[in-house]
Amino acid sequence: MTAKLTIVVVEPDRDRAIGIVDALRDAGDYDVHVIGSTSGLARKVAAHAPDVVLIDIDNPTRDMLEELTLASGPLDRPVAMFVSGPAGDLSQAAIEAGLSAYVVDGLRPERLKPVMDTAIARFRMMRRMRTELAETRRALEERKVIDRAKGMLMKARGIGEDEAYALLRKTAMDQGRRVAEVAEALMTASGLLR
Amino acid sequence: MKTVTLSVAYVPLVDAAPLIIAQEMGFAEAEGITLDLIAAPSWSSVRDMLAFGRVDAAHLLSPVPVAMALGLGGVTVPLSAVSVLSVNGDVIGVSSALADRLRETGYGFDFADPVAAARALAGVAGKRMVFGVPFPFSMHVELLRYWFESTDLSGRTIEIRTVPPPLMAQALAEGDIDAFCVGEPWGSVAVDQGAGALLLPGKAIWSFAPEKVLAVRTDWAETEPHLLGRLMRAIWNAGRWLARPESRTATAELLARPEWLDVAPELIDRSLTGHFTVTAQGEMRDVDGFLEFHDGAATFPWRSQAKWIARRLALANGLPADSVTRAGAVFRSDLYRQHMSGTDADLPGASEKLEGSIRVPMAVSSEKGHLSLLPDAFFDGRIFDPSASD
Fold it and tell me: Is A71 on the interface with B (CB under 8 A)?
């Protein structure tokens, strides 16, 4: 019988970390550890002697893990970002999903694949949620600016709300810009003139 | 005109300027390309985005493609360094605690003499010191090791630890590290935050050190020669523009913007002009040629530079000497010649030089006959012969 795979997840956000751990535990019998704080990161990771290390590609502390790829220290088993052979496609999929993985050299692909498939799916989902959140936030902010610009036009020109919005929209269409951009420009200009 | 979009990964640093300027000042457009510049949070992320095809080209630490060719660091996709983006530009600094002790001994923070700086530091440092650097494969590490081994710091217990540059000042303030070697603006940020003081510019150790390179996948260079040529020429023109003193103010203002470096233009100005504030007390020091983008054939990828890096990496990691020649070939002086001939760039007659042998600006044979190389000496006077086999 082969020993359980040990997986270390580096993720400072607690909710995200729990999500990843749950997904991995559902996928198989793994020994999963989470490291949240980053001081002495490489040392902390090495202490678990992991087979696989998972970290968000956008995590700026990721470079600290590169030290693990130099074969030395308590781990004494080189950890590589897997690239060649059947893992090549996996690498590409992982990077597109926003995940980077470090894997102990010599780990058999058939043991690695289910871990990576699960992690990739999870990271893809988190990335999508993040993008959606950013878009929602932006839409909200744009609405706020448009509302303020409308209010300003209504007061300055003594027109109704619908008319103010129509004016913004017409200006945007004439200039080939978005309504939010025109509203933003109006706010900036009025700020300067005040 | 319809342009082709090329994606390029970079780390937000002053020495990413040639890429940013190429896009912002129209040099890319003049070549019929648009640069989609993707800021990366770490060097490993830049390397992986390039290696796995997420981007076409990258701003990369010069030792990274060399290390990859030596099989170090896990990722082994063949990369080509087609030009040097910047020469020099690092600073070495210490924590405020060490700076105070140095001051008590009468050290003058000359920001110039590596031997005196090492002697002073060895006199006040504790049993062991931790130096922060941005990445395990970097000019920062190579300069530090070279400095340690030829000065009073040799034989000391010094640990070199990776710390992301934006976190360097904080790591220093919290005592995680005692000293650092980092690219600007992060050294100046540490001084401004009162976390530390600057000891030396990188060029005090090696006066013409290739710092960042423009890297592409070797197979991409072969399948897209026309795009590569346009990219290289756009960036070369940006470097020439950057080298003009009258461009400095505009450069600092532009790089300072939130979408690029998002730091005060005054901090960026220091590395462009070479006028540094080295201590929290506001002491000023000047460095000539602190950061080169163009002069002295700065962008030419000398194979001897790659071989020097390969030799140092091979020694540090116990690799055989014959790997050095192979790894030296990742600096593609051949592609540089191919794509830059017929432009304003003057090409040197040779592709290797005796690194460290130039003490004063020296005219050399070149295609157009008006090329002068800048001093490339090491502080200890050693000379590296790329063809010597040992």
Answer: no
